[in-house]
């Protein structure tokens, strides 16, 4: 079921100003879309040369805002394809006066059309849609086609940090990451009972934790 369009959505999006960039490919077919024709100038976007991290699928922005507040020497580029959702994230960041977070309305399959190669210091995948049906595997954000996009954007030594409540997606992700060539570390099947420090909760994570659902987490990197 589609989410109903929020009231005054267009005016609210326009009010987000410099916090929000909307990126739409000219041709919505990866076989025909030219890559790197509209790259963002990340230094200009943030107004500094601090390292840029990226959250793919930021939802309403709780993680993005908390991460930016906790790491003032880092920039966070938060990605979300739904205008209905990203507007709330932008408004939350504006209310907090955060200067090191920006939002990009863009589908993940087109990220390499708009983000410069080898410019991202780390990627967060928080509670991505699991697409449980087998035929929808290619839509999962840890499918090898997305991993290839992340690989093209990540600086040497950059890591992917993933969290999910879905065991099937987690097992799929472990397999895809490993087969692509990523090395896994800090893998846990129960994050909140693992002793891990510095975890930043998302909206979904809070809900699932209250339901006593285990949270799965991993970190992945490519060896030089």
What this model shows, in words?
The chain has 224 residues and is an alpha/beta fold. It has one domain (51-222): Rossmann fold, CATH 3.40.50. It is 31% helix and 23% strand. The protein has helices at residues 9-14, 42-46, 62-70, 83-96, 111-114, 144-153, 167-180, 203-210, and strands spanning 20-22, 52-56, 75-80, 101-105, 120-126, 154-164, 182-188, 216-222. The protein has an 8-stranded mixed sheet, with helices on both faces. α4 (83-96) links the parallel β3 (75-80) and β4 (101-105). The mean pLDDT is 92.
Portion of residues within helices? 25-40%
Number of domains: 1
Order of helices and strands: HEHEHEHEHEHEHEHE
Q: Main beta sheet: strand number and arrangement? A: 8 strands, mixed
- Look at the structure and name the CATH superfamily: Vaccinia Virus protein VP39
Q: Can you give the mean pLDDT?
A: 92
Strand content: 15-25%
Q: Tell me which oligomeric state these chains represent.
A: single chain
The total count of helices amounts to 8
Catalogue the unreliable spans: none
Shape: globular
Q: The CATH topology, please? A: Rossmann fold
Structural class: alpha/beta
- In CATH, what is the class? Alpha Beta
CATH architecture: 3-Layer(aba) Sandwich
Summarize the structure.
The chain is α/β, with parallel strands linked by helices. The protein has helices spanning 9-14, 42-46, 62-70, 83-96, 111-114, 144-153, 167-180, 203-210; strands at 20-22, 52-56, 75-80, 101-105, 120-126, 154-164, 182-188, 216-222.
């Amino acid at each position: 079921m589609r989410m109903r369009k929020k009231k005054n959505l267009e005016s609210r999006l326009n009010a987000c100003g410099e916090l929000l960039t909307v990126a739409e490919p000219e041709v919505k077919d990866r076989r025909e879309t030219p890559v790197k024709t509209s790259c963002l100038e990340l230094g200009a976007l943030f107004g500094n040369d601090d390292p840029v991290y990226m959250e793919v699928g930021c939802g309403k922005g709780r993680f993005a805002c908390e991460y930016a507040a906790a790491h003032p020497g880092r920039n966070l580029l938060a990605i979300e394809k739904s205008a209905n959702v990203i507007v709330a994230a932008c408004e939350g960041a504006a209310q907090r006066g955060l200067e090191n977070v920006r939002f990009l309305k863009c589908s993940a399959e087109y990220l390499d059309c708009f983000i410069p190669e080898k410019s991202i210091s780390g990627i967060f995948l928080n509670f991505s849609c699991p697409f449980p049906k087998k035929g929808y595997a290619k839509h999962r954000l840890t499918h090898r086609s997305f991993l290839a996009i992340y690989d093209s954007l990540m600086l040497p030594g950059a890591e992917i940090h993933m969290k999910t409540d879905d065991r099937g997606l987690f097992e799929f992700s472990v397999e895809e990451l490993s087969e692509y060539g990523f090395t896994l570390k800090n893998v846990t099947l129960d994050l909140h009972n693992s002793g891990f420090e510095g975890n930043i909760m998302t909206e979904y994570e809070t809900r699932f934790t209250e339901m006593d659902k285990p949270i799965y987490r991993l970190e992945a990197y490519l060896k030089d």
